[in-house]
Amino acid sequence: MITVYVLHGNTTNKRYVGITNDLPRRLNEHRKRPTAARRAVGVDFQVLLTELFPDYSSADREAAVPPI
Description:
There is one protein chain. With 68 residues, this protein is of the alpha+beta class. The chain has a domain of 30 residues. 35% of the residues lie in helices and 34% in strands. The protein contains three helices and three strands, in the order ββααβα. The protein has a three-stranded antiparallel sheet with strand order 2-1-3. The longest helix has 10 residues. It is globular. It starts with a strand and ends in a 5-residue tail after the last helix. 15% of the residues are buried.
């Protein structure tokens, strides 16, 4: 399963939409390595939303819709 997730930066007040096949690993990467999400939301973030999809193509279509 593929996960689309939305992060919210507690200090930056910005959001980031991502796609992964391993959410715990990906969140750990956001906290430890320089990534686009880390630049956008910082290291103090919360997960606002997660949604599972059967494949990357359907997840990618969902991720293209801006978060509310």
